[in-house]
Amino acid sequence: MNDKTEISTFRVRVEGFVQAVGYRNFTIEEARKHGIDGWVRNRANGDVEMLVHGEENAVNAFITACTRGPEGSRVKSIDLEKAEPPEEKGFNRRPSL
Length: 97
What we know:
Blueprint: E1 7-17, H1 23-34, E2 37-42, E3 48-55, H2 56-68, E4 74-82, E5 91-93
Parallel strand pairs: 2-5
Antiparallel strand pairs: 1-3, 1-4, 2-3
């Protein structure tokens, strides 16, 4: 049996009605619940962008939660791209871009 824990790191872009509905706060709560490191920020085009790093199962559960989002949000699509791990621990809000 393989005891090695798989780690995943993705840059995530969430498209839809995801600004001004508490989406970033939602992701911060979910990330802390799942032990995810990384960051979240709003994009000027209305998307939300994240860097997500953690155990594969936790990352999958986090992304599944992000497809629902908080009440009032409407997620149209989520794009994932492999990425390098964040430099710091924890999951934080970054300034909008």
